[in-house]
């Protein structure tokens, strides 16, 4: 069995065992997980229901046993009920042990892969040709899907931000935002973006920054497309944290990432084309920073995945119209 098969089977096993056992115990252990609200819907699980039935039947047996002078049959029934509950308790405990065993086996593989990713990231030379190739590899269906999600969430009352775009492909979907920030050090990308936008928009509403750190803290929507697929988890965490700090309450972040729960994405990772990540790893990190998950979708047989995150709160703006003012460049790139 090759490594792809091993990790894929471990992912499937983790999913299959996810809801087994004591649901209340599971909820308690995962109260801080990014899917806690989803887990709360599992209380009606048959395991919990069966345990409740056994307990109620035991109380009933004990109640009526007092009515009989010769209660041998009821005694046997009570003993069997107790044995069933004891066995079921052991069964639930063993399920939890099995979950931990699966997670441990999966984690050992993940650590090895992520260590190799980190070394590769530090030594990899990213050329413009490579950036263009990565962009061209994205399926047209996924590009259209992401653009439609962006357009549904842009609003002229709030600032928008695009992180490290290769060209204007996703920038054009953000032109309703006022202002629109572009964060990049790539002069080729900046030239492509400016050449495909009107002079008015470039001069009046476009803002260019070298890094996230200098941005104003009033972003309504930030997008980061086809970036997380090629950086390790610690770099992803930095971007998530900095973006969160510059986002208004209620603001959104749309990003794409490499979900190695999907076999296709895992294969590309082990071939050295992408960097390892899973939904649990990414969303868990986002949740720990403060983000909530609004929506997530996977397309092209698991090849491409996006997620929309939201900062808690409600977006609010006092704008009543988009201003037509001179672009004052303060701390911006020209």
Please give the structural blueprint.
Layout: H1 3-17, H2 23-29, H3 36-39, H4 46-65, H5 72-123, H6 128-137, H7 140-153, E1 159-163, E2 180-183, H8 187-195, H9 199-204, E3 206-209, E4 219-224, H10 233-245, E5 247-257, H11 263-270, H12 279-289, E6 292-299, E7 304-310
Parallel strand pairs: 1-2, 1-4, 2-3, 4-5
Antiparallel strand pairs: 5-7, 6-7
Descriptive overview:
This protein has helices at 3-17, 23-29, 36-39, 46-65, 72-123, 128-137, 140-153, 187-195, 199-204, 233-245, 263-270, 279-289, and strands at residues 159-163, 180-183, 206-209, 219-224, 247-257, 292-299, 304-310. The protein is α/β, with parallel strands linked by helices. The chain has a seven-stranded mixed sheet, with helices on both faces. A hairpin with a 4-residue loop joins strand 6 and strand 7 (304-310). The longest helix has 52 residues, at 72-123. It is elongated, with a radius of gyration of 26 Å.
In the predicted model, the low-confidence regions spanning at least 5 consecutive residues are 34-44, 323-334
How many domains would you count in the coordinates?
A: 2
How many distinct beta strands?
Answer: 7
Q: DSSP helix count?
A: 12
Please give the largest β-sheet: 7 strands, mixed
Architecture per CATH nomenclature, i.e. the level-2 architecture of the largest domain: 3-Layer(aba) Sandwich
What percent of the residues sit in helical stretches (DSSP H or I)?
40-55%
Structural class: alpha/beta
State the strand order across the main sheet: 3-2-1-4-5-7-6
- Report the portion of residues in β strands: 5-15%
CATH class of the largest domain: Alpha Beta
- Kindly provide the radius of gyration, computed on alpha-carbon positions and rounded to a whole number of angstroms: 26 Å
CATH fold naming of the largest domain: Rossmann fold
Secondary-structure element sequence?
HHHHHHHEEHHEEHEHHEE
How far is it from the N-terminal to the C-terminal residue, by CA? Answer: 55 Å
How would you describe the shape? elongated
CATH superfamily of the largest domain: Vaccinia Virus protein VP39
- What integer is the average pLDDT? 86
């Amino acid at each position: 069995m090759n490594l792809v098969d091993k990790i894929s089977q471990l992912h499937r096993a983790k999913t299959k065992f996810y809801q087994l056992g004591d649901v209340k115990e599971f909820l308690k252990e995962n109260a801080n997980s990014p899917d806690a609200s989803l887990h709360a819907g599992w209380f009606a699980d048959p395991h919990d229901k069966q345990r409740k039935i056994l307990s109620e039947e035991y109380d009933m047996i004990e109640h009526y046993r007092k009515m009989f002078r010769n209660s041998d049959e009821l005694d046997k029934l009570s003993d069997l009920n107790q044995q069933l509950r004891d066995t079921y308790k052991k069964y639930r405990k063993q399920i939890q042990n099995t979950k931990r065993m699966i997670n441990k086996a999966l984690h050992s593989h993940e650590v090895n892969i992520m260590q190799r990713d980190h070394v590769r990231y530090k030594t990899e030379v990213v050329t413009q040709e490579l950036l263009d190739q990565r962009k061209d590899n994205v399926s047209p269906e996924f590009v259209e899907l992401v653009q439609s999600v962006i357009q549904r969430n842009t609003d002229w009352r709030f600032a928008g931000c695009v992180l490290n775009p290769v060209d204007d492909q996703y920038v054009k979907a953000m032109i309703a935002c006022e202002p629109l920030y572009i964060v990049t050090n790539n002069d080729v990308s900046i030239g492509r973006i400016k050449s495909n936008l009107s002079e008015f928009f470039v001069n009046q509403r476009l803002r260019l920054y070298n890094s996230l750190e200098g941005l104003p803290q009033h972003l309504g929507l930030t997008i980061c497309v086809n970036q997380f697929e090629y950086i390790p988890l610690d770099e992803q965490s930095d971007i998530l944290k900095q973006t969160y700090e510059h986002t208004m309450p209620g603001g959104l972040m749309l990003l794409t990432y490499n979900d190695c729960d999907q076999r296709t994405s895992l294969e590309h990772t082990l071939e050295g084309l992408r960097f390892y990540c899973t939904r649990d790893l990414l969303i868990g990190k986002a949740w720990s920073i403060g983000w909530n998950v609004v929506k997530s979708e996977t397309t092209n047989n698991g090849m491409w995945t996006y997620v929309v995150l939201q900062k808690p709160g409600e977006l609010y703006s006092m704008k009543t119209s988009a201003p037509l003012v001179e672009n004052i460049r303060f701390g911006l790139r020209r």
